[in-house]
Amino acid sequence: MRRRIPVSSRPVSIGRKLAMAGLAVATLAGFCGFGLCGEMASAQTPAPAPPIEITYLGLTVERVLPLSYLDQPPTDDGIQGARLALGDNQTTGQFLGQSYHLNEAMAADPAGAIDAFKKQVAAGQRLFVTDLPAPLLLQVADLPEAKGVTLLDATTRDDTLRGESCRRNVLHTSPSRAMLADALMQYLVIKKWGNIALVIGGDPADKDYADAVRNSARKFRIKIVQEIPWTFDPGSRRTDTGHYAVQAEVARITQGVRDYDLLVVADEADNFGDELSYRTTSPRPIAGSQGLVPSAWARPFEQWGATQLQSRFLKQANRWMTDNDYGAWLAVRAVGEAATRGNTSDPAKIAEFMRSKDFDLAGFKGTKLTFRDWDGQLREPILLADARSLVSVSPQPGFLHQFSELDTLGVDRPETKCHMQ
Amino acid sequence: MMRICFATAALACLILSQPASAERIFVSNEKDNTITVLDGQTLAITDTIKVGQRPRAILLSTDGKSLYICASDSDRIEMLDIATLKIVRKLPSGADPERFDASPDGKLLYIANENDNKVSVLDIATGKIVAEIPVGIEPEGVAMSPDGKTVVNTSETTSMAHFINTATNKVIANVLVDSRPRVAAWTPDGTQVWVSSEVGGAVAIVDASKHEILKKIRFEIPGLTSDQAQPVDIKITKDGKTAFVALGPANRVAVIDAKSFEVQKYILVGQRVWNMAFSPDQKRLMTANGVSNDITVIDVGDLKAVKSVPVGRSPWGVAVAP
Question: For the purposes of burial, counting CB atoms within 10 Å of the CB of B199, is it exposed (0-12), middle (13-18) or buried (19 or more)?
Fold first, then answer.
């Protein structure tokens, strides 16, 4: 990729449309900062490149208070990551004569999301970052309007979306449950903690999480000695003396569970998982959806320049970056990177470049991130962290792969149930 | 030197080894907020100096009397007097200074402000920031051309090398390189700029006048995947013949023929080898190894690692004073 990018020869649109005025001014300011305003006037003027449009399509989900009042769910989860990446794309774009525009389309219900999607497509939008639950994402992907559209799924973990229900027009920047479970199981192999007990919550998502743990345990030869359904609803556990009930319940369900090294919990909605530690009958560490958590992003993570992303995010959003924010940041950055490297503003070419062998993304994980061609999943290292420290990063050393060690996490090409034509 | 020592009287030995033992190695320890000082000859730690928060790049002043330190989390440059080993001045830097370079006359420092997308220009005499140059996201590498007319800055998330005219403090060209460019280094003749891309795993050789990439060097290390070779610091010998590239988590330094751009050898050093410095006679190269908390001394003639010495936590930068 030998390219020269002389700033002075790139023209800039100035106030083409009112709607774009803000962007144009921002771009112009960037150039004027380099003292090129004068040169711009004298430069030859081919048609100015329109901004690269990205739409963030999200469903405003009802906020459910988590178990711990310490971490209140943010109202702007996900979208803040997209906004941060937009700024990153903009800064790079100003040196290349490219600019970006982010449309934020948030809907209150599935019908509203479908409606918003149709409207955005009619308005010419082709690149979407989605924050939609799996069934709705699938519904959107199958709409006739979705032909020629790319949906970058920033938030789902659903394995069927990467498997039998995969779609050609969907790419995933959030890791699948299979990847998360594999990241944890690899670490258990390294630690020689070969026996686990599995506590499973009552939500459908918890069943999916447990499925991923079961599959992964089989793959890495970890034995699940016992599965324990969580059925307890203590109600007023946060009132005075409420802790007695929880303490007794956790001791009861783990009583008699033999020969396990670790208690894995499947509680994605954060209903009870934080209340297992220190309460089990035998002293055992907790991992899974709580405790030692495999995730795409984590607050204690500061390696490979992640400190910079953490601090930029904190400054912009006044809160810590979540997995959803990171997924959205990756998705918007993927568009920017494809536009930069592919030297194009055409959404079809950007989508094509993202899937090509020339594409890679730097995501503060110390390695190149690329999309798997068999299921559209972004390859990425998975962090293993608790609330205060980064414990490890998978793939673990020694898990080898003939093409990419990142493919030891999740569903590899030979096993995939995704058969995109 | 040691052989001479054994062959001669003890007194003569002391006198003979005097010039060499005056050489001192300075290492910034990012997580200890200290600078470790080692005797250049014995490699023994002689002093540990408390400095500002998160010291990263360090640079010997042009007159050789001071050491400038990027105290990143204190948002300032500290000036260490090499004779007294005391911090004598605290200078403004703009936010989060990471790397910097000096003008050939030693009067100005060009500082990359990692959190602010800027390069700040500091007038050392007055202690004032005299210019701020907007660049890409997460500016990191800063390299002054031998003639002092151009400074190159790399921005990690923007993946570009920005060429800045020092007379006007304006960006004159941007060269897109592979992901996460870290360090830029000029060849001594000023015709090329070498740029390392950490995640891209390549060193781009850029024609300094045409601003075009002439060649990309990649690293194939037996037994390691190509992802593990993540080039960071680059040091080119004064004769322009050999380049050394630190390969981060590959724990190796690549030796490159700077004319043919062929990798000649990989030298195993400490873990996460980050930045390097030649001894003044260029017979030795010191590497700061961030994960193994040590520095490795490489014999430039033999192309062999001679010794590793523990220093503070997360050693980041290294400088050698004559």
Answer: buried
CA dihedral (A175, A179, A180, A184) positive or negative: negative
- Are the beta carbons of A366 and B174 separated by less than 8 Å? no
* Beta-carbon separation of A311 and B174 below 8 A: no
Q: Give the pLDDT confidence score for residue A235 in this predicted structure.
A: 64
Under the banding of pLDDT at 50, 70 and 90, the label for residue A236 is low
Please state the rounded mean pLDDT for residues A387-396. 96
In contact, A407 and A372? CB cutoff 8 Å:
yes
- Single out the residue of A387, A105, A67 nearest to residue A230, CA to CA: A67
Q: Per the CB < 8 Å rule, is A30 touching B210?
A: no
- Nearest chain B alpha carbon to A36: B170
Residue B96, CA distances (Å) to B55, B195, B199 in order: 10, 22, 22
Residue B57 CA to residue B70 CA, distance in Å, equals 5
B253 close to B246: Cβ distance less than 8 angstroms: yes
Q: What is the mean pLDDT of residues B240-254?
A: 97
Q: Taking CA A204 as the corner, what is the angle to CA A198 and CA A206, rounded to the nearest 5 degrees?
A: 25
Q: What is the pLDDT of residues A306-325, one digit of tens each?
A: 999 999 999 999 999 999 99
ipTM of the complex: 0.76
Sheet holding A390-394, edge to edge: A293-295, A382-385, A390-394
- Strand residue runs (E) in A211-306: 223-229, 262-266, 286-288, 293-295
Q: Is A143 helix (H, G, I), strand (E, B) or coil?
A: coil
pTM of structure: 0.83
> Tokens representing A186?
């690899």
Return the residue of B nearest to A365 by Cα: B199
